[in-house]
Amino acid sequence: MNKKKVYPWWFVAIPLILYILFFLLPSVLGVFYSFTDWSRMTPKNGLHFVGLKNYSEIFSGKSQYANGILNTLKFTIISNIVKIIPALFLAILLQESVRGKNFYRTVFYLPSILPFVVIGLIFTSVFNYSNGLLNNTLDFLHMGFAKQKWLSDLHVVWKSVYMVDAWRGIGYVMTIFIAGLNAIPKEYYEAARIDGANFWQRLRYVTLPMMRGAIMINVVFGVTYGLKVFDIIYVLTNGGPGHATEVITTYVYELYGSGKYGVSTALSSLLLAVSAVVGFLIVKQMRTKEEDAA
Predict the structure, then answer these.
(1) Is the pLDDT reported for residue 66 higher than 80?
(2) Binning pLDDT at 50, 70 and 90, where does residue 237 land?
(3) Beta bridge partners of 36
(4) Under 8 Å CB-to-CB from 105, ≥6 apart: which residues?
(5) pLDDT mean over 219-235
(6) Which tens digits make up the pLDDT trace of 76-86?
(7) Domain segments of the chain: what residues?
């Protein structure tokens, strides 16, 4: 037997087996259990098929779970906007001949390597109303009118979450944009300058079209992250005040911890379905644009 034909099969088979065992099989089992009354009492009462009961409980008017789904989608959209747009302009600025640009790139990127738990604990202290750094600084600047209950006021809490998320994520998104900018031939900008194009015209007709791949990569990463967000919400607000900042993953965690495994897996299955649909639409859009560009 030709060994050259055997090795590639082994390289494919091992990752495929691991994927089936640790991702595909648990996902299928999770979907199955979402149609049962699986709970802490199952060993005593047995496992029973309940159809769409768990899903109807999620979307019933009395539950808060539907609000968690809406919060997840809202966070996914807004968190991408508040990171991608500033990161793009930072990348363009630091791509120019700015003195110390490597230092600034490092400073902006550093927060992205910190664990979410550490960031959450730091900003929980910073946002403390009574003795937090932010409100104390506002008092020092005689701007006490701007003080807020950053993590307990319904009108402010989401802004605080987006602020922290942007602080951590902008540097990572910026790095991908810088890589995309480095791939653009300099001759395009030189030709645009000769034609008299200003900054905004170069941005519209040269930079953005040539950065399509980097933009789509950041969108895919951002959507994947937004749909699965857990750490930053749990550490900063624990889903509060009330249930105002609950997302799908925090509800899954709480339900599983309380022994309602069936409803928990139903929410997880919904998250899987939403992620699959969104991922399919993004990939389809990328293929369409690649075909148009070709």
Answers:
(1) yes
(2) very high
(3) 49
(4) 94, 171, 174, 175, 178
(5) 91
(6) 999 999 999 99
(7) 64-258
Write the DSSP string, the chain.
Answer: --HHHHHHHHHHHHHHHHHIIIIIHHHHHHHHHTTB--STTHHHH---B-TTHHHHHHHSTT-SHHHHHHHHHHHHHHHHHHHHHHHHHHHHHHHS--TTHHHHHHHHHGGGGS-HHHHHHHHHHHT-TTT-HHHHHHHHTT-GGG---TTT-TTTHHHHHHHHHHHHHHHHHHHHHHHHHHTS-HHHHHHHHHTT--HHHHIIIIIHHHTHHHHHHHHHHHHHHHHT--HHHHHHTTT-STTTT--HHHHHHHHHHTT-HHHHHHHHHHHHHHHHHHHHHHHHHHHHHHHHH-
Residues whose CB falls within 8 Å of the CB of residue 218, separated by 6 or more in sequence, listed in order: 80, 83, 84, 87, 173, 176, 177
For the four alpha carbons of 146, 152, 156 and 157, in that order, the dihedral sign comes to: positive
Residue 53, Cα to own-chain centre: how many angstroms? Answer: 30
CA distance 34 to 266: 4
Contacts of 76 (CB under 8 A, 6+ apart): 222, 223, 226, 227, 229
**The tokens of 24 are what?**
């595909």
Category of 239 on φ-ψ map: left (φ > 0), alpha (ψ -120 to 50) or beta: left
pLDDT digits (tens, 9 = 90+) for 150-174: 999 999 999 999 999 999 999 999 9
- Tell me the pLDDT of the chain averaged across its residues: 88
Which residue type is seen at 128? Answer: N
Q: Does domain 64-258 have CATH number 1.10.3720.10?
A: yes
Residue of 181, 179, 210, 226 lying closest to 80 (CA atoms): 226
- Residue the block writes with tokens 């590639």: 8
**According to the model, what pLDDT value does residue 216 have?**
87
pTM equals 0.87
Tell me how crowded residue 236 is: count the other CB atoms within 10 A of its CB.
24
